[in-house]
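Figure 2 data, in text form.
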Amino acid sequence: MSLSRSDFDQYMVPNYAPAAFVPVRGAGSRVWDQEGREYIDLAGGIAVNALGHCHPVLVKALTEQGNTLWHVSNVFTNEPALALAEQLVDATFAERAFFCNSGAEANEAALKLARRAAIELHGERKHKVLSAYNSFHGRTFFTVCVGGQPKYSDGFGPRPAGIEHFDYNDLDSLAALIDDDTAAVIIEPIQGESGVLPASREFLLGARQLCDKHGAYLIFDEVQTGMGRTGHLYAYMEYGVVPDILTSAKSLGGGFPIGAMLTTSALAKYLAVGTHGTTYGGNPLACAVASAAVATINTPEVLGGVLRQHDRVIAGLEAINARHGVFAEMRGRGLLIGAELKAEYAGQAREILAQAALQGLMVLMAGPNVIRLAPSLVVTDADMDEGLARLDRAVAAFLAARG
């Protein structure tokens, strides 16, 4: 097959602008393109490939399930879905799980559940949804409107009513909006797409108290922070603030598409038979892979390794900055790390990404001013060191190109 990057422009809808190279094979934290060139992957498929590429435990789970049962629909249940639900309930605050195919679908389900429960209990007036400016909760029309970034929701017609936005990490801003008509407050414990901005514990604790005061449900969107990314199975565990509903995806399947909404029995009952559904959600293939991913990630060895590797990455970024002076701040938790560019380099993160690709490195942006790293949770020290060395060369090339 002789397809190339140029075929994208011929056959695909132009909503993406992929890199010039085409990855064709991966192993661990390394990827090879069509020409056989090797790259260090510190992007992780946007915080998805939690165990790297082709991890043997996940390959084994997928292969075994692929030879057993692929799909039966939710007219029936299946053993892998039940096993995964049991794992997640045992490991979290939750008592019930709902499976879908993506983070957007998980957030859609969470928001529908919160509104449904609030309206059934208190009437139609209690339907307001509050979220932070610059948040990101998915690309369905409802979730993209809930996300506080008009650039993603403008141009698609009238927006759903009852959605308002507060300033992230600003409890006074949230307090000014929340009232007894609020059904839900949805928060990312770390704003991933908007610059890798961690919430303060005081903010999340205050949000919990405000929701309790006004009878609103607190939703934590842990699509990006969940499944070991912060060095805890879910970030809420580090903060010590428990939501009513939690959403998970990305690393949950280690690269296989799956999403989950987790909640309590008391709340789950409002999604009665027929109120919500999905054709592929909870299919045996996805659940078998996710179950293997959860069992592998939720161990002291992996979670402790994430915390250890965090310190290594921060030290590496600080060393790069000592040589080149391009970063204003390094922030994040675990292996979700953002390096914000200084004001004189504002808006130029994409140029550094392009130089990184030329150096054989895959990294991410989190907005136009932030370089984001979201590598495998089991990335080796050797791969991390080599990746940081390539980033160093990329930054040097970026500065040289500026003259």
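Caption note: The radius of gyration is 21 Å.
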